[in-house]
Specification:
The complex is a heterodimer of chains A (438) and B (163). Chain A is an alpha+beta fold and 438 residues long. Chain A has 2 domains: 51-148, Rieske [2Fe-2S] iron-sulphur domain (Rieske Iron-sulfur Protein); 181-424, Naphthalene 1,2-dioxygenase Alpha Subunit, Chain A, domain 1 (Alpha-Beta Complex), CATH 3.90.380.10. In chain A, 27% of the residues lie in helices and 26% in strands. Chain A contains 10 helices and 19 strands. In chain A, the strands form 5 sheets. In chain A, strands 12-18-17-16-15-14-13 form a 7-stranded antiparallel sheet, with helices on both faces. A 4-stranded antiparallel sheet of chain A has the order 6-5-4-7, with no helix packed on it. Chain B has one domain (5-149): Roll (Nuclear Transport Factor 2, Chain: A). In chain B, a hairpin with a 2-residue loop joins β4 (105-118) and β5. The N and C termini of chain B lie far apart (34 Å). The chains are: A alpha+beta (438), B alpha+beta (163). The A-B interface holds A 98, 189-198, 217, 219-220, 223-224, 227-228, 334, 338-339, 347, 350-351, 354-355, 357-359, 362-364, 366, 369-370, 372-374, 380 and B 43, 45-47, 49, 51, 54-62, 66-67, 70-71, 73-74, 77, 79-82, 119, 121, 153-160. Bound molecules: FE2/S2 (inorganic) cluster and fe (ii) ion. FE2/S2 (inorganic) cluster (FES) binds next to loops of chain A. Fe (ii) ion (FE2) is lined by residues 207, 213, 217-218, 367, 371 of chain A.
Chain lengths: 438, 163
Amino acid sequence: MDTILSTPQMVVEDRERNLFRVSRRAFTEESVLEAERRNIFDHCWLYLGHSSEIAGNCDYITRAVGGRELIFNRDRAGAVHAFLNTCPHRGAMVVREKKGNALSFRCFYHGWSFNVNGRFASRFDEGNYGKEHYSGGCADLAQVPRLECYRDFWFVNFDKNAVALADYLAGAKDYIDMVADQAEAMEIVGSGQQYVINANWKLLAENSVDAFHGFPVHNTYFDYLKNIGSLRMETNAGHFNARGMTDLGNGHAVIEYQSPWGRPIARWVPSWGEEKRPLVERLRQNLVQRFGEERGHRMAEYSRNMLIFPNLVINDIMAITVRTFTPDAPNKMTVSAWALGAAGEDAELRKLRLFNFLEFLGPGGFATPDDQEALENCQRGYKNMREVGWNDISKGMPRQGQPMNDDEEQMRCFWRQWRQRMEGRMEGSRVGGLVGVA
Amino acid sequence: MARDLTALRPCIEDFLYLEADLLDDWRIEEWFALFDEGATYEVPPTGESGETDPATSLFYIADDYVRLRERVVRLTKSEAHSEFPRSSQRHMISNVRILGAHGNVLDVTCNFVTYRAKRGVVDTYYGKHAYRIDCGSEPFKIKSKRSTLGMDMLYPGKLTIIV
Ligand code: FES
Ligand SMILES: [Fe+2]
């Protein structure tokens, strides 16, 4: 049974006193992680990969998602699949490479083989197997119960009764559009970054949309921008003006703000050089033409950090990072992060995009390691949990109107959804209309 | 131009040991002074991805001279939180080979193991360095350094120290 039901509340919201608190046990206990696996990762839509990663027919990649090992591939006809990467014979992982192109998959243990559409394709001599094996499907690769796509972002769900992906994404769709619309097609650049953080996975969910920590933690990054002439404060965003946070429903949230850095989509900064200015201006005009003055400028000028519950982050900042993270233990997660860029992008801009990315983001960047340090410090701080047992996530609660981007309302959206799911209140129900506490 | 490159190895090894020592002792500005103006420092993605150009694929680190200088500046600040308090490091180097020479500039490779300890956790980084070193004058100058990690992913999580 769900442990969280038999224990005191871990997420407490007191509207009268403007207090929102989360028990530190939510970050430390094995039983909580177990309940998360059953209540969250077994029922939510989880990010699998981007269309561009399996661009050609018979392309495949292997990836761990939601505690499973999956194959994400295109068959000979170009149809996209997600298979559980385990042999129906006796369990070996059928595909062991990270990525490739293959006309069929063959399990190396006893040699069962499969078409890339999952069908059992071995032919053994008569007497070995009955016809069930050849036509009954019991020897086929198992498909993930649900596989759906929005704007080239592919998601899986291990609950066959889950609501449609489009309903699940709710308000996040509009913000995915703002990323997907940046060019005719977008693509993942290179193979991305994979690293471990010794902290609970939810700490990274919070951190990824946390503007409160920006200056204290990333001071050295802003110093760097200043030193190299990449800091440009003034903005030209037309009529659009925002510095806020939007609740996107179902635990998803986004913060949007003016940022001082250059954006390869169409925001020039002096360190890029005058010679690139006309090119960037053309990109910007193109956006305005396609999406109108306001939306075009907004796409170009503003940065957005979005969390899609439970563990997908799409941050459209100095570069675009698509990031997902999986718990390995209560105090350990594996992070996969990719750079997304315009397909067919100008080579110089592509380079700027990648440099923008690695200057801030990732284990070797000037910012992400300090986030990691903060998260790992929190996790260690929770050793004092018996005496100091609660996190405070109350910032901005008394504020009237739209929350600010450096409030903590986006985290409260996450935690309300977490609580609902952990309490089993969403079991078997359609979650489309439920948006936390009213 | 048949030069006996192996004869140069002791000098190169000495130079690499000096570099390792400076890093071990957090004498990071002196370490940066080993680099020639215009030098680069890179750490490509992990795994056998064959991704060798930072202009087309995502590296962990792809520093030109300016970004490398700024990396060093950053590491001298206490606000570089991931290295404050500072970790303790030991850089091991072996299998030093001189693969070729272009005038006074040598192509050098070596294996490395770097340990980083902080708050009771020891991280291990290992892989191969590829250098271009200008031996034309004393002290030698590094023209480029590329550190290709041997691990298939970044288990230690951070890459805040110079491996
Ligand atoms: S486990 Fe795959 S063929 Fe036996
Ligand atoms: Fe951060």
